[in-house]
Each structure stands twice: as C-alpha cells, then as structure tokens.
Amino acid sequence: MLVRKSPGTDWTVVLDEEDPVLGPTCQERTIVVKPVADLGEVPRYVRPLGANLRTAGLAVPTERLLPLADELGAVGATNLNMLGTKYIVGLDEPHDGIFDTLVLTRSDALRWTHIAFRDTNQALTAALRENRAANTMRDDTAIMEVIS
C-alpha cells in the first residue's frame, strides 16, 4: 500500500494493490486507487459497498464503458466519472440517482446512473457505434443524442 498526501488536509491518495475488493473509505478529499486486471470483475469488487456506493471514478476505454456502466448501475453506482471530469453534479444531472427537481414535484422510484465524460457527445457516439458494430446492444436500449 502506498499513501501520498498534501502537506495539509487538501487531499490524500492511497494506492492499494493488495485486495481488489473495495470497502468503505473515509471519503471527502481521499481517493483509493485499486488497479484491476479484468474490468468484468469490477462490479463484484464494489458489490460489498451496497447502498453506500454512489460515485465511481473510472479510467477505462470509452468503448468498454457502456457495458461496465450497466453492471455498475445494477450494483448501486449512480454517478460514473471518467478521470479528469467534475464530480459535482448540476441541476440538470441526477444526484445519487435522482433528479432533485423531480423530487420537488412528484415521487419518482426511477433511479438514474450518470456518466461524466470530458466530451460527452464524442464519447457516447463512439461507444454507441462500437456497440452497434459489435451487435451487442440489447433490444431495450434507448439511443439518445446528447446536446451540450
């Protein structure tokens, strides 16, 4: 295990290569990095977090993100951020799986998983093209153009 921190309390980074299973962390300005050999195993590694799983920072190829996002959403992730993107959501994005403005107007049992890319249109278009080419999209998958 390797720990790097700022001189004060601005940030702490922990590199943990011992066990890929992720447990609760101290949050806030702390990040725990756990390299994995197989992206397909990531949902199993984070499943123990259960209802405490919210945001996951990812460094994965865009073409592999959408299938992984489906699986991470199924185990509880509601906010997926590609490294280098913002982690604070705006009013037009779901927070913890729920659009806050909808909560003010009605009860909504629908939960969303938000994905933050550096260039959302480019990333989603590339991923959708890749999925179409591989013919791996499910029949119930909705395709939406993101307008920024």
TrEMBL record:
Record-level GO BP terms: bioluminescence
Superkingdom, natural source: Bacteria
Keywords tagged on the record: NADP
InterPro entries from the UniProt entry: CoA_reduct_LuxC (IPR008670)
Keyword NADP: yes
GO-annotated molecular function: acyl-CoA dehydrogenase activity
Listed name of the protein: Uncharacterized protein
